[in-house]
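# nightly structure sweep
# worker-07 picked up a monomer target from the shared queue
# config: single-sequence mode, recycle default, output format = structure tokens
# input follows
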Amino acid sequence: KGESRAVDAAKQAVFSPLLETTIEGATGLLINVTGNSTVGLHETAEALNLITELANPDAEIIYGTSINDNMSDEMKITVIATGFQGQKGRRFPKISTSNLTGDEYHPLKDVRPVEATREEVVIPQEEADTWDSSRTRADLPSFLKNRK
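# output follows
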């Protein structure tokens, strides 16, 4: 929100602690900027510049904008980045199961499959009778076609 909403939204999109890695060096970016009708070209360009500076200089960048007047003074930026070519960024730590014992650790092999059951669907006659006769048999749902 506010005067720096474009830059703030761009920073939130690319520097979120929820991201597995950074977008640095990405060779493909898909960017969507969403805001109300007061979002100007200058604001959008400012946000796009901040994001594209992090990508590979030869990156293919596709961007678009969406107008949503329900957003009041807010701005939202969505970034999808691809093509990291083996670059190592910030990663989630690997979880070790070697320290888990007893009730804490239940390997998948102990899980038993659940048997699926199939229930017959019964349609009351009055519902079947209200079927629009102008429709073809192809419009009829399978469970009504196969009714005995």
